[in-house]
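Standup notes
- HV: blocked on the assembly model, inputs below
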Amino acid sequence: MRAFTQHKGIAAPMDRSNVDTDMIIPKQFLKSIKRTGFGPNLFDELRYLDEGKPDQDCSQRPLNPDFVLNQERYKNASVLLARTNFGCGSSREHAPWALDDFGFRAVIAPSFADIFYNNCFKNGLLPIVLEEEVVDKLFRETADTEGYQLTIDLEAKTVTTPSGESFSFEVDDFRRHCLLNGLDDIGVTLEDADSISDYENNRKQTAPWLFNAGN
Amino acid sequence: MAGKTLYDKLWDDHLVKQRDDGSALIYIDRQLLHEVTSPQAFEGLRIAGRKPWRLDANLATPDHNVPTVDREKGIDGIVDPVSRTQVETLDKNCDEFGILEFKIKDQRQGIVHVIGPEQGATLPGMSIVCGDSHTSTHGAFGCLAHGIGTSEVEHVLATQCLVQKKMKNMLVKVNGKLGPGVTGKDVVLAIIGKIGTAGGTGYAIEFGGEAIQSLSMEGRMTICNMSIEGGARVGMVGVDETTIEYVKGRPFSPKGEQWDKAVEYWNTLHSDADAVFDKVVELDGSGIKPQVSWGTSPEMVTGVDGLVPDPAKEEDPIKREGIVRALKYMGLEANQKITDIQLDRVFIGSCTNSRIEDLREAAAVVKGRKVAASLKQAMVVPGSGLVKAQAEKEGLDKIFIEAGLEWRDPGCSMCLAMNADKLGQGEHCASTSNRNFEGRQGFGGRTHLVSPAMAAAAAVTGHFVDVRELTH
């Protein structure tokens, strides 16, 4: 996995709450058997005026001029500002894959849905929870200043604005450690293979029915 | 010391290792696999040169992409080449790695969350995962069941464990008796309407109280299924006689001495009387009416006798904006009667409501009636080949067909429209599925979430109607 240590990039405001994973990447694009190439279809139904189809050349499609990421000033954004319960709905990891493929490295919101939040960490995408008032302030400042950039430091667990104002965020130690070092968490778990085998052998004695094959 | 909640017990029984950093390794007894969220996981194993830790813990079936017609053609019946590749890839991966799969032409094929319980592959007390957020369904059996992403599917394949941090405990207690015509679906929609779509975030929810205990396993599965629509990754119901009775005699269920030993353990799978929950929410079950969602989030729901809300009356600006946007997308007016919403299509199916009891409830309403002429389509999609066979044995297929509903083959179908079954732009659908998000059932489609009985009532009238007026 790609490591995340520090990142500085343009912020884009996604000003609606309960953004669901169907909205982030609609189902017709989940038919891919790859992990990459979802970027052009990120927010497909909001971003384009027509109905998107898999394997289509999106550069020829009519853009929705009102959609935030279609505005010139946000085209190179890499930090997404969002509202409460971002990423609710399905468990599709295609949602973080699409955000990543578009070029986002972090999402900042007052709250995230659990599965989406978890999926982000597996893909080097950092979800950051900040107080609602702080997020409001970042929304205002982003709107007011073209080219508004945020600096994210995972080591220090801070988000810093262009004026130097800094906000701290919380993140689990294990997740932070994996992300800072770009660790493959399967490899980390397999270091405990003996513990897993011990548990399993014990369960075979105490709950043997869990190891039956169907008939 | 306070007693343990059901979640505490399940957590303790699956804990392989508690790490110093607060994370833990949780052993997974069963992984269900389908074609959409598994290909990249198998590819990851291949690239890293890893093998599945325990083959017999896995069970696979294609469900999201499968067509609901022409199934005798098997994979060749999948018209969309991209969908076909995904189903073929699942077959290839399961064959290569040696994982049991119910393939497209197998009568046991169906929606993962229907076939697990049907086969007894879902047993009380198990920890279960699937790359699908509706895995919470299996919590109805007193299981610790999580929806996971594809990286975690790969992680569980390779290690039989999930890295987790313990969640908080929430009890949703539905007191009293449900009225006639009120189902598990109405209960869960009412719960989500009350707690909101993020109300359960960070919690494992246990559903309890008289109204839950009196439900069948199908009703409990419907409720646990939609835990995720209330924000909770995990939903569950304690084990009782109803649970054990359902599990008995299924292909994967224990037999003989193992059965007795299992039952003894299963009977301990309920929260202790003195267990402490971090949060408790109570509802009066006797006051719950048949529910209809009007907006683009499952929390945007009301009783069938209600009105579409007026954004002007909402004080919170973000919520107000959400209502305005939802009404625009749904093509509805503030203060419009729910019963005045005219429908284009009706969909009865999905992992929420496609089990035999759901089909019986729908059939009871349409029996001797006809689908309204104003509808373009009304379809019934059973949850598995075995549900379909059972329904046909009971003659339900004939009731549906005589009433003018289409009787299809099993799969996820129009719940998320990854196959050919979808809504056209602007069409209103009474749907027994779980999500009314924008575009969920088709580009520009407008979904209203209801119970099977309410969907059936809408099918024969062409608009929403209180099913109790037709049946009682």
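- HV (later): unblocked. Chain B is about 35% helix and 15% strand. The two ends of chain B are 49 Å apart (CA to CA).
- Next: hand off to the docking folks.
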